[in-house]
């Protein structure tokens, strides 16, 4: 939305009252209340219980409206889509976390291997390795 945030705020900071959120999303305030009851969009709450919508909530409201009006998806289907998208986002975050953890473990193993190699004694002498075939023929005369 190209907006400047107050210090400490971001797109997830609840800041819009329901009337402003309704205007920004192009929906009626009662529709926003219904979506909240259905669990489609869960705005933040003030201590007194008033709803406060973030920019992310408003984007989600617009997506709910688009799915409903343009794609013909019912509200139960939209809830399922939102839940699955949230699950995918969580899984992507977990994959990223595990990838970083694996990279750190790999780097630690490489450092440990380098330390072991650095500790090798330098006074060892390399030995030439050859393979020889010796054929032994016993002396048959001794029997």
UniProtKB/TrEMBL annotation:
NCBIfam families per record: HeatShock_HspR (NF047375)
Protein name: Heat shock protein transcriptional repressor HspR
Residue span(s) of domain HTH merR-type: 15-84
InterPro entries: DNA-bd_dom_put_sf, MerR-type_HTH_dom, MerR_fam
Source organism (scientific name): Saccharopolyspora griseoalba
Pfam families: MerR_1
PROSITE patterns membership: HTH_MERR_1, HTH_MERR_2
UniProt xrefs under SUPFAM superfamilies: Putative DNA-binding domain
Keywords assigned by UniProt, alphabetized: Coiled coil, DNA-binding, Stress response
């Amino acid at each position: 939305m190209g907006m400047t945030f107050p210090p400490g705020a971001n797109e997830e900071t609840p800041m819009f009252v329901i009337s402003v959120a309704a205007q920004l999303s192009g929906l009626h305030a009662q529709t926003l209340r219904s979506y909240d009851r259905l669990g489609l969009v869960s705005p933040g709450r003030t201590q007194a219980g008033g709803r406060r919508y973030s920019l992310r909530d408003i984007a989600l409201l617009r997506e709910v409206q688009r799915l409903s009006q343009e794609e013909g998806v019912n509200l139960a289907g939209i809830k399922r889509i939102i839940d699955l998208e949230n699950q995918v986002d969580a899984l992507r975050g977990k994959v990223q976390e595990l990838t970083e953890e694996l990279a750190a473990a790999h780097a630690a193993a490489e450092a440990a291997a380098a330390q072991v190699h650095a500790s090798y004694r330098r006074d060892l002498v390399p030995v030439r390795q050859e393979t020889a075939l010796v054929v032994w023929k016993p002396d048959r005369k001794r029997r």
